[in-house]
């Protein structure tokens, strides 16, 4: 990719991001700060992260195609590129059927949106696509730098690499809880995942990976929660993160659960001492 991302990044919604956390993560050695949960088309939250740091990459994961006009997003991309050249990655995606009022053909909508980004002169190698299933993964390989899958496992990473080919970007997200008590960690994981496990694009993908209907009952089976939310010491969590790299990821994006804002930094610093 045209932007240097590093082997590990961090994902959070705008609510948790701020100058202190951004600067601290850059100092700790993380390569990319990913702004989640449908950032607005003006990309002002991404601009704050760029302005709060010196050289770390910043990406969106993801700009929601249903909510954000492609032409406006393209204009925002160019503004950020002028202010902070070579540091921003535009991650886009289709969002969720259950949370979208006028949900038409997802695939056609993605194609049309990428066409509009072409018209807005957003370079192919500076954009990435949220992709889970084989068809959209192939589209990510053909029309963007690659894929940024969310809520996946190393097995999905392995399968996605096979679909994308060796020369396309693959950046999966992985949730973690730095907690050695399994029941406490699983409770944190279940609480966070409650809404996600109601969304068909995620549940369908997880079923393709071998999870059954029973795994989604009562907030998620231990097997499902343990796969989606790594827990334990920093060393134990790091082993699970590197499994994505071994499966073919270019970067693993870490989302630490259980704390908020600047309180997240000590956990990421503890992981950094093991990962870097």
TrEMBL record:
One of its GO terms (cellular component) is cytosol. Residues 20-117 form the Luciferase-like domain. One of its GO terms (molecular function) is oxidoreductase activity, acting on paired donors, with incorporation or reduction of molecular oxygen. InterPro entries: Bact_Lucif_Oxidored, Lucif-like_OxRdatse_MSMEG_4141, Luciferase-like_dom, Luciferase-like_sf. SUPFAM superfamilies: Bacterial luciferase-like. This is Putative F420-dependent oxidoreductase. It comes from Kribbella caucasensis.
């Amino acid at each position: 990719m045209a932007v240097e991302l590093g082997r590990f990044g961090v994902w959070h919604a705008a609510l948790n991001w701020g100058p202190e956390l951004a600067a601290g993560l850059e100092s700790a050695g993380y390569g990319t700060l990913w702004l989640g949960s449908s950032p607005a088309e003006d990309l002002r939250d991404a601009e704050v992260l760029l302005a709060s740091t010196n050289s770390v990459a910043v990406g969106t994961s993801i700009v929601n195609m249903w909510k954000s006009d492609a032409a406006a997003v393209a204009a925002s991309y160019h503004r950020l590129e002028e202010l902070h050249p070579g540091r921003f990655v535009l991650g886009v995606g289709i969002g969720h059927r259950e949370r979208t009022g006028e949900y038409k053909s997802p695939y056609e909508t993605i194609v049309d949106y990428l066409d509009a980004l072409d018209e807005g002169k957003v370079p192919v190698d500076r954009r990435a696509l949220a992709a889970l299933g084989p068809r959209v993964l192939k589209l990510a390989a053909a029309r963007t730098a690659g894929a940024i899958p969310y809520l996946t496992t190393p097995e999905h990473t392995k399968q996605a690499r096979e679909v994308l080919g060796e020369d396309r970007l693959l950046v999966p997200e992985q949730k973690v809880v730095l907690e050695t008590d399994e029941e406490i960690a699983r409770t944190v994981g279940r609480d966070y995942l409650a809404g996600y496990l109601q969304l068909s694009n995620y549940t369908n993908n997880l079923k393709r990976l071998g999870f059954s209907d029973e795994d989604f009952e009562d907030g998620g089976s231990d097997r499902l929660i343990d796969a989606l939310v790594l827990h334990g010491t920093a060393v134990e969590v790091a082993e699970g993160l590197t499994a994505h790299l071994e499966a073919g990821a270019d970067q693993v994006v870490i989302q630490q659960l259980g704390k908020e804002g600047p309180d997240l930094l000590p956990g990421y610093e503890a992981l950094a001492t093991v990962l870097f």
